[in-house]
């Protein structure tokens, strides 16, 4: 089946991308292979018509674009946006804990984590390390232990008889993972462990570890699930799924029209950062690409913010509006909120519906229950910063913000097909 072949690439991407830095590195590798040129923000740019480029900021956010063959101020830009980060547990700066002979690490909760599923899982560790090399230069490298190195054990039900009815998680005291057993006189520092991992993994010889941004993650890889393999289960589907689909769409376009993919870090914590959607990254790239014609280009452009949606859970159907419960494998979901938690309007929704209908592909709509709060995406932030017409859409999923999430296997290919057509469409409006 065609979607099965497409999803095999998705599963490889998910497994290779345990952190935003790894996700961007994976995307960089695919862009390089497709002939895109990397741009450095410190350099002068000499962009050529009909060419592909990308810019990376902080190693965790990326903007990739095709310049197209026409004047961008007249043609506009077909934009797709996603985010590289996911809720997780991050290692604290001074993390070592030694208790009862166990070596543990203190962790900080990043984003709106669903904490209970993190217990009793095989956990690995990955991220970016900043270090001093033998020449006295400050450098960065990526690390990924790629095996189960930690575990957060639950307290036995015999010692907590109300665990199934009244369990709460204290993020400070309940979450430090167990990594190994050590003797009482052990003085091994976490920096020592990192230096050893850097040497073993990539041959990096660090004189000193100066800092790191490391996250625990589920050591079990992405997989097909279901009697007929109709689902995909993985960590970080929110929102590496959209990063992968957006990238594959950009790589599959003809290149005739101006098209752009932005994948921002820090969406899960509000997007306020140098590389977040509420920061200046995308605007800076567009300023240098479009120049004096930027305002005209934006007026003729459209952004599709792709971020997963809440599929209707068969065990909790009352959590959805009765007319807006998206089903897995029934198409991507147009997300609507008139209080501007989503940026969709009737015009941007119409563009997506029209393309999807032309291709004979399904689509759905989601509106949160009127008595519940609504989440948000990079869509409203990007729309507000740029003044660009924006649509919020996403593949429906279960278990959002859990350590492991689930989507329908057919929906990823459906969104890819529509985004590919959108990104190479001669006329947007």
From TrEMBL:
What GO terms in the biological process aspect are recorded for it?
A: proteolysis
Q: Would you name any one GO CC term?
A: cytoplasm
Q: Which CDD domains match?
A: M18_DAP
Coiled-coil residues are none
Q: Which GO terms describe its molecular function?
A: aminopeptidase activity; metallopeptidase activity; zinc ion binding
User: Which InterPro entries would you find in this protein's record?
Assistant: Peptidase_M18, Peptidase_M18_dom2
Pfam families found in the cross-reference section:
Peptidase_M18 (PF02127)
**Keywords of the record:** Aminopeptidase, Hydrolase, Metal-binding, Metalloprotease, Protease, Zinc
Q: Which family does it belong to?
A: Belongs to the peptidase M18 family.
Protein name listed in UniProt: M18 family aminopeptidase
Q: Which organism is it from?
A: Marinobacter nitratireducens
